[in-house]
Amino acid sequence: MMPEEASSSPVPDPEKRVKASENENHALKEQIHALDELLWRARQKLRSAKRKQADAEYYRSILHDLRSRWYLRPFLPSHKLQPPKRDFADCWIYRGPRFDQASSGRRRVLVVGHLLSSALFGSERSLLEIIAAMDLDKFDVFAVFPERNEKVFAALRSQVQGIALFDYFWWRKDRPFDEETVTIFEQICRQRAIDLVHVNTIMLIEPQVAARRVGIPAITNARELISQDADLTARLGGDAPEI
Questions:
Q1: 30: number of Cβ within 10 Å
Q2: Which CATH superfamily is 92-236 part of?
Q3: N or C terminus: which one in the chain shows less Cβ crowding within 10 Å?
Q4: Which tens digit of pLDDT belongs to each residue from 89-98?
């Protein structure tokens, strides 16, 4: 009998497999970035549509009044022709016992999270630990998040005086900050008499801009090693020294 011939199938080159895997990961990250941009634009359009709908409903109510009470037409004040200014800071889903009234001797701190997913990551856990470590006899803490997590919110109720929830996004070089988001943070700081803003990551910029406009200090917890994270620098659209 003739001896069996050894299998001649080529052995995959490990370097090529690693390179192919890296290329695939890079392509997936590019897709995620593109989807993030589409999501941001969609939310901006939704926010704009909600504003237009509210304005349309207001004008519709004026027309109803004019049709039903024609004798009021000459006496309609000019300011009635403009939609009322909406309170963009009315985004609180929890109000504690000291929400409205600042207690003497306590500093009010606004803590801003950049993410709050169902599976908490390191930076999110660290932020929750910071809140839990704050002395409630010295600080009234108010927390703001862009996402809902009822389990986390339930745990925070005993540690904070307010929890706010609304859409805001990570900054990028081509869209440094959103003016309406800055306005919301600015109103929150003024209405709640905030003394200090604490931002959990370098991925946010609107809270710091709002704090500067209000005239209060802001702290950024710079967790990212931006000089060692090429993917993050690419996502932000700049190089490490610039960021």
A1: 13
A2: NAD(P)-binding Rossmann-like Domain (3.40.50.720)
A3: N
A4: 578 999 999 9
